[in-house]
Amino acid sequence: MKQKLFAGIGSRKTPQHVLAAMAQWSNFLTANNHTLRSGGAIGADGAFQAGARISEIFTAKDSTPQAEQLASEFHPNWKAIQGYSKGLMGRNMMIICGKNLDKPVDFVICWTPNGAQDGGTGQALRYAQHLGIPVYNLFYKYQWNKLWEYCNVIEESHSLKYQPKGR
Fold first, then answer.
1. pTM to 2 decimal places
2. Residue 19 and residue 12: Cα distance in Å, rounded?
3. Cα atoms in the 13 Å half-sphere on the side-chain side of 84
4. Would you say 49 and 55 are in contact if contact means Cβ atoms under 8 Å apart?
5. Average model confidence (pLDDT) for the chain?
6. What is the mean pLDDT of residues 94-112?
7. How, if at all, do strands 55-57 and 34-38 pair?
8. Residue range 126-154, pLDDT digits in tens
9. Beta pairing class for 135-137 and 34-38
10. What counts of helices (H) and strands (E) characterise the chain?
């Protein structure tokens, strides 16, 4: 079975019950042939990372000129972005498509305030959407159910139904 990749990202303001679920989903998925990609920030990124068994974490210092060039194509006001922030936007591209920008994730799990595409998470979501990558935004309750369905498909062979606590 091919190793799958998922991005675990979101707002620093993600509610506690969602953070707990993110850690559980990350633990479950990485125990079942998935690798987490995230950005190492506090909040959602940290929750995913805390639960992960296998991860690739990209920070602003990992950003490359190629990643920042790509980021400039998806940011609504790139000219206003300076220095360190360009590195953060570049690392968002790497979360979605890997260190060399050639291995996209299979799906994204996130939480954003009001389901909006704001900030760094919004930057990653715009790029994922452009590539046709499915996004589970946990701001929307129906997205929780879609993610549970995905996890239940993984667990069918174990006759076990998965639902994270903390909903």
1. 0.91
2. 10
3. 1
4. yes
5. 92
6. 97
7. parallel
8. 999 999 999 999 999 999 999 999 988 88
9. unpaired
10. 6, 5
- Tell me what pLDDT residue 160 has: 47
Average pLDDT over residues 108-134: 95
Gap between the Cα atoms of 141 and 145, Å rounded: 7
138, two tokens: 């946990």
Cα–Cα dist 119/4, whole Å: 26
Q: How far apart are CA 50 and CA 91, in angstroms?
A: 19
Residue 163's pLDDT is: 58
Instruction: Tokens 């046709």: give the residue.
Output: 132
CA dihedral defined by 48, 147, 128, 49, rounded to 10 degrees?
Answer: 10
3-state helix, strand, coil in the chain (%, to 5): 55, 10, 35
Helices of type H across the chain? 16-31, 44-51, 65-74, 83-97, 119-131, 141-155
**Tokens coding 137:** 């935004």
Decide if 120 contacts 89 (C-beta within 8 A). Answer: yes
72 φ, ψ (degrees, to nearest 5): -60, -25
Question: What is the pLDDT confidence band of residue 115, given thresholds at 50, 70 and 90?
Answer: very high
Q: Distance (Å, rounded) from C-alpha 116 to C-alpha 160?
A: 34
